[in-house]
Amino acid sequence: MAGTGTAHLRDADDIVLRVEGLVVEFPVGRTGLTVQAVSGISLDVRRGETLGLVGESGCGKSTTGKLLMQLLRPTAGSVRFDGVELTTLSGEALRRARTRMQMIFQDPISSLNPRRTVRDVVLEPLRIWKRGTAAEQSAKVDALLAEVGIDPARAAESRAHQFSGGQCQRISIARSLVLDPTLLICDEPVSALDVSVQAQVINLLEDLKAAHGLTLLFIAHDLAVVKNISDRVAVMYLGKLCEVGDCATLYRAPAHPYTRLLLDSIPIPDPAAPDVPVTADGEPPSPVLPPSGCRFHPRCPAATELCATTEPTMRPVGDDQFVACHHPLVAGLT
Amino acid sequence: MTRPRPLQTAGRPAEGPLIELTDVRTHFATERGLVRAVDGVTLTIQRGRAVGLVGESGSGKTVLSRSIMGLLPRRGVVRSGSIRFEGTELIDAPRSTLRSLWGREMAMVFQDPMTSLNPLMRVGEQIAEPLRIHLGQSRAEARDTTIRLLTEVRIPSPAERLRQYPYELSGGMRQRVMIAIALACGPTALLADEPTTALDVTVQAQILALLSEERRERNMTLVLVTHDLGVVARHTDEVAVMYGGKVVERAPTAALFRRTRMPYTEALMRSIPTVDDPPHTRLAAIPGRPPDLVEPPPGCRFAARCAYARERCHAEEPSLVASSDDPDHHYACWYPVGTVEPVALRPADPAAVG
């Protein structure tokens, strides 16, 4: 968009998560100003699908993940998960709904309790929810640890700092799966890992998704990683959505100039690749005083006066591809 | 915008070795024992070239670049070998020798522009400081040069930026300021340690383009330290790949990508997801994790994770030798890519996953 609209939402029976018009505002110091970190996002995810949410730092993608979990409460908008509206739930009902949606975070070491053995960390959700007997709980935890590639015996006597970053991310994944969730929200799960370990964790997530019938929301800034794991992709810029669509289509034929800029900016590991001139200069502006109209217009090579005054809304530009742009990169639509 | 002519590029020899490393070892004394962070690196960097130093965290690439700069603490560091810069020996060189080289001869850009600038000093003062100390410029001269430098690194309205503090600038702008400081005294060599890792992808492209442009215009030597093969592919003339404290493959950039010889380099390239592959392409992950540098394994340090490894690899350490068909292509491997069939690795020990 950077615009609004819900044309990209689907009408199907197997929608696990449906988000409409999600907004969150934070006060800016004592200035009396507010910043809309997320400014009218709508999304849906089908059962068994992986939705990639991609954008640069500060675009609001991690905030969106926290809003879905209700770790942050949205200022406006609706989050329906498995048919239940989460924004109006609280206390026991919210906690119960949240057992079926779990989250893994960017920094794997600091997201595990440093004082407890990692086996206890993975076991704790079962204890809290009193799922099964102690023996059943133990068996489940050991099986999951083995499944993510962590030796259960070592997990029983070691704490998080005794494992590498990649191993801690595996442990976090085991913890997130112990309550048999439907939806897993992954917030930059591999960006703190070395490239050789990154691939292991991505492969593991794909395997676990198949084995446990998971639905994934995969939040990341790395476009190649997002393409590898996603079925559908949503591109964010400054609190809004630019483009949503089928993963292969969106990467093959990006319709939004910002998506194009992102793709052109990826350094290609091939010295013989043709040089792509950088089409836009500058950096994302502050979301405190966002540009009028389309939020991308000051950096956009295709911007016109219309873009500065009128916010574009989502519209279809092909089979399962939607763009919020007045001048999409699609023949016949500008 | 017309860009001012760079400073101090005349009268510099155009060719010949600039930085000569011979069996450089940098070890750190820790409670667990001696960490062999850099463990025998021999490498010559030619004048005016852009050299990529690539490796994962713990490969020794950052410690090597800091060893060249002489930026490591004196205590707790055991160093040996030879680091010659324009013929001057830098290993155990007195501080005064290093000070005479910093700024004018070699300068560094660091990864994190958020913490590498002094938060209490205006941007203009930070750029003027090396000009006044190393070049002896007056306050007024330094101010003029600073404005020129900021224009050169494409910072809009430079005269106003001079008075700002780092917190008032975005990450990309701060990295441009870091580059302006490093370029201030017209260094012969610029060492850039992960200069774009903390930046967004659209800003990364701008900063890499800027560094390449500056290097060409100034005939400057650039050492680009990064974990990202995509970054070195288009911005370097040659690449040295590091693993476990050693250089394991070194080649002109095109040759490294076209005819990879070292299995580690090949594995690293294959494990990276690319936008050219369709969604859900299975990634060729490298099993296991990098070696412990306190007690490195005997033989090749990559052997435990290598699909081509044979018995000899676990016992004898290969040295970096030139390829028989390309004298510029060096690799340290008994069975380089294409000479033996890959074998299935032992089922990974669950405790050995990364």
What does this entry show, briefly?
The complex is a heterodimer of chains A (334) and B (354). Chain A has helices spanning 61-69, 91-98, 118-128, 134-147, 152-157, 165-177, 195-212, 223-229, 247-252, 257-265, 305-309, and strands at 15-27, 34-46, 50-54, 76-81, 84-85, 101-104, 183-187, 215-220, 232-237, 240-246, 315-318, 321-323.
Compute the number of strand runs of chain A: 12
CATH class of the largest domain in chain B: Alpha Beta
Integer tally of domains of chain B: 2
How is the CATH topology of the largest domain in chain B named?
Answer: Rossmann fold
Strand content of chain B: 15-25%
Helix content of chain B: 25-40%
Computed over alpha carbons, the radius of gyration of chain A is 21 Å
CATH level 4 superfamily of the largest domain in chain B: P-loop containing nucleotide triphosphate hydrolases
The fold-level CATH name of the largest domain in chain A is: Rossmann fold
CATH class of the largest domain in chain A: Alpha Beta
Number of helices of chain B: 11
Q: What brief labels describe this structure?
A:
heterodimer, A: 334 residues, alpha/beta, Rossmann fold, 2 domains, eight-stranded mixed β-sheet, four-stranded antiparallel β-sheet, 32% helix, B: 354 residues, disordered N terminus, disordered C terminus
Explain this structure to me?
- The complex is a heterodimer of chains A (334) and B (354).
- Chain A is of the alpha/beta class.
- Chain A has 2 domains: 1-100 and 181-191 and 209-267 and 277-334, Rossmann fold (3-Layer(aba) Sandwich); 113-180, no CATH class.
- Helix content of chain A is 32%, strand content 22%.
- Chain A has 11 helices and 12 strands.
- Chain A has helices at residues 61-69, 91-98, 118-128, 134-147, 152-157, 165-177, 195-212, 223-229, 247-252, 257-265, 305-309, and strands spanning 15-27, 34-46, 50-54, 76-81, 84-85, 101-104, 183-187, 215-220, 232-237, 240-246, 315-318, 321-323.
- In chain A, strand 7, helix 7 and strand 8 form a beta-alpha-beta unit.
- In chain A, helix 3 crosses helix 4, helix 3 runs parallel beside helix 6 (165-177) and helix 6 (165-177) runs parallel beside helix 7 (195-212).
- The longest helix of chain A is centred in the middle third of the chain and has 18 residues, at 195-212.
- The radius of gyration of chain A is 21 Å and the shape is globular.
- Chain A starts with 14 loop residues before the first strand and ends in an 11-residue tail after the last strand.
- Chain B is α/β, with parallel strands linked by helices and 354 residues long.
- Chain B folds into 2 domains: 17-243, P-loop containing nucleotide triphosphate hydrolases (Rossmann fold, 3-Layer(aba) Sandwich); 261-354, no CATH class.
- Chain B has helices at 61-69, 95-101, 123-134, 139-152, 158-161, 171-183, 201-218, 229-235, 253-258, 263-271, 311-315; strands spanning 17-30, 33-46, 50-54, 77-85, 88-89, 106-109, 189-193, 221-226, 238-243, 246-252, 321-322, 330-331.
- In chain B, the strands form 2 sheets. An 8-stranded mixed sheet of chain B has the order 6-7-8-3-9-10-12-11, sandwiched between helices.
- In chain B, helix 3 (123-134) packs across helix 4 (139-152), helix 3 (123-134) packs parallel to helix 6 and helix 4 crosses helix 6.
- Chain B starts with 16 loop residues before the first strand and ends in a 23-residue tail after the last strand.
- At the A-B interface, helix 6, helix 7, helix 8, helix 9 and helix 10 of A face helix 6, helix 7, helix 8, helix 9 and helix 10 of B.
